[in-house]
Amino acid sequence: MSIAQVKRIAISDSPWPWLLPLVALLVVFTVYPLIYNIWLSFHEFVPKQRVLKYVGMANWIQLVNDGRFWGALGVTFLYFFIALTVEIILGMSVAILLDAELPGFAALRAILSMTLVIPPAIAGMMFLLMEDSQFGVLSYFLGQLGLLDKSTPILGTSSLALLGVLVAEIWQWTPFMVLIFMAGLRSLPAEPYEAASIDGASSFQMFRRLTLPMMSRVIAVAVLLRGIDLFRVFDYVFVMTSGGPGTSTYTVSLYAWQQTFSFLKWGYGATLSLTSLVIVMVMANLFIRVAKVRW
Amino acid sequence: MKESDRKSYLASVTDRFVRGQMDRRAFLRATSKLGLGAAALGMGMGSRPFMLNKAVAQEEMQPSAEVMAWLKEVGKPFAGTTLKFATESTPPSNAINSQLKKYFEEATGIKVEIEVLPLEQVLQKMTLDVASSLGTYDLYYIDQSWAASFSQDVFDPREQIKAKADLAMPNYNIDDFLPALVDGISKYQDRWVGVPYDIPIFIMIYRRDIYEKLGLKAPATFEELYTNSATITKEMGPDTFGYAGQMKSGHYALECEWTSMLWGHGGSIFNADKTFVGNDERGIAALDYYTKLKDIMPPGVNQWTWDGQGQAVAQGVAASMLSWGEFFPFFDDPTQTKVSGLCEAVIPPQPIALRKAEECGYGEIPGVGHQGGSSLAVSRYSKNPDAAWLFMQWATCADTQALVTTLGGGTGPTRASVYDDPRVKSHARVGAGTTRHLPVVRETIDKYMGSEPDLPEWAQISSDTIPVALGKYFSGSYGSSKEALDDIGTGIAAVLKG
Amino acid sequence: MHQSKLIRTVRTIAGWLVVGAFFFPIYFWTSVAFRDSKDIFNWPPIIFNFQPTMRNFEQVFGISFGFARQDAVAPGGGNFYMAPRLWDSIVVASMSTVLAITVATFASYALSRMNFRGRHQFVNWVLSTRMMPPVAVAIPMFFIFKQFNLLDTYIGVILIHGLMNLPLAVLLLKSFFDDIPAEIDESALLDGASRWTIFRRVVLPMAKGGIAATAVLCFIFSWTEFLFVLTLTQTGLKTVPVVSSTFVTSIGTAWGNMAALGAAAIVPAFFVVLLVQRHLVRGLTMGSLKQ
User: Fold this and answer.
1) CATH, domain range C83-288
2) Distance of CA C178 to CAs A213, C46, C115, C182, Å?
């Protein structure tokens, strides 16, 4: 057999036996819910009779005219972009900082990943306690630094509440970024850096000209994975502010949750979820195009 | 502290120490506050033999032999059955789940599995259960605001008693349930949607020591509540404030407190035509009062549900609250709070005016004692309705309620006789799990109880429409209280239209 | 690159400070587990100087640590005995990880080694299954589970958690496989080995690190998942995030107990992280280098 023949066999092998379990599971458990939700978005649950009544386009019309939804969408985007930006920048910085064999750094890298094993709802409770203006240790530190007055509750002030929630979000998920970026950093070849160093390049130049381009793929994967989840996260908001004060931290996922679980508006909840799904899909595909990710 | 109070506090601390409910260090710490210390330790150790008293205490907590004998007899055919019950995390459910159900299981051979969930999850699970007529839960925990929705899905206990004479518990005495609770929690139209199971209710709790120091008297009216609280905040702030609220934006807690203010000013949520009238003159006066009161509360009160409110009083940050009476036993626990023995419970302040229930819609009953009670009922879809009925009778009989009340940290019983039970009364001393506030709870139930309207959309209105708009209002997004209330009216109309 | 001593010192200190800042909330939360509530709520907040108590752990795990056994009832009226739920969490997280990894390994190998039309779109589709908000999946899932008698069973929860992690696992594993040079497969094929043999004997061992890394992430996501367990279980099993909501009672939150369970729940999960820590860095490394 020639190498060319082997290559052809290798390529022409049918992938489907290998993919079958995956496809089967995904079809049963994700395609069905999708179809169900599309169907559901044209119906509404009537609590008294306990039936799903056909309502036509009513849910979709309501969505378009729902000021609450558009407000929540704005908050969601704000949350999304701030969290993602900070997590990437901070994650990259910490990854670079810790990417060295200095005393105790191996332990530090392990400790950092501890934040990930705490359920987000519990992390939300932690920060709720720590940001309380009367008892919270974080509020106290900020007060000592002169940044915050005790009379300004973080989570009770419209302009600060979202930041308060983002602290929990960023605290928990920056280490996730560090983990992925660190792996990327460790795999970079040493030669280009040595050459650049001989040419007298500064550390910043090396970072911009070498590290960033070589890491672009890793960054793209991290952005995709975290970005998708960010759009669905609601635990922190739910636990810490219930979307308040007013609607200043009210997100689409919290809205969908409340419609579905608290108010039993399954139809409208499905409509909200589908909308959020479409938005994420569009954004992810745009990103995949722009970042030229090829699977 | 007055001499008599000191004695009662000492007695209760010693009592706890002797029962082994308190370790030596905590005991010494508590008594040293009274200037006693080691002397009291000697008293606890010496005068009453340690082991013996612990045994006595245990025996006191046993269920009545009569009830157990009946369960053993009547439960025979059901041995091996498993019952499922979904409930909110409330004192009776937790006490039954962790301490008491073992007695029921031993006697009958019926296994009881209790699923403890946040309130809205209970609603969701029950809805899925009835929507698919699954019958996975044998017993339903029905919040007062769901009575209308689930009235057709459960057995009326009165019918059960008649229909199944052989399974009826002797001396169950269904007439023992406080009539106000039956009306306010369990009754929907002519049906009983289960029996009253739990009754958290607003009472007035205040720090007697602070009030005495400043020469104040317990607030008898809403006006006094404000002036007293303002005085305290002025004299003792910013370390101690006169009042703490439960004002978290977008949370049911805010709606609860607001209703008590609204009712206390003669307003109501709906009128007899089922239209929102919380924005009438009285409604505006109530919200203006609430705003005024908030100004003298600790900053940050709008991040608190009843949990933060309770902690504020427990840790000495606030001197009073009009809130769930169930907190009171916690305040008296010297290991958990800084105010053990210092709090006093009285009936809520008298309303400035009070609207009659007939003038309101959807079964709303104005009253300053806001209630958040719930019923226990057997599901129509249960596959073991008879076993479930046995459990329900046992869980709500006088003997079990007395145990729940003493074990569950002084939660309000729903039966008249339990308030007079000697076991319950014997806990009416300062200390963890006290029942000394119960006479006030009972009086509030009898005379001042307020109940929220009862309609399927209420879950959304009470935990979203109202508290979100109020949260907006308190963070300054509305021009005036009227504007905020009008907006609530619009929101409610939209929800009702569907 | 050689760094001066000063830079190394500064960097060491900075590293410790940054990780210290991230660690502080965990320390604080763990310390709350050892406090009575009067030591939790103070101004200024107490950070180190409190009277440690084991009561919260005694209540949550139903064991006595030799301190005076607390017979009285915790706030909320119950002893929140939760030890079995920790076991439920461990079973669910580890089994669902096994499921996700097994299915994803096969699929990713094919996606990495076999060219077929629409592969790019296929991967995008797999990724998109993670985009559906869990709220929307929960209710149809409830009805499916009811149909197949999977409600309130280990198998049901393991299945849904495994499923939830598939897109993540496929994506990561595919990139790890991509990094193993295809020439290795080809030369083995030349020697007459079958696809299956190559997969099992050659590729799989080489991707061990990457698989471990992916597994740990799957484990973490299952460990912290809330909504599916909430909707699809009743009394048969519950995982830590869901039972934690029990501590939010109608008469206030049992902070100490909640912290005790939370702190205890860090231990097994962190142990898993440590086990694969070395693979984690090495594994992800291999996966990332591919342009």
Assistant:
1) 1.10.3720.10
2) 19, 52, 12, 8
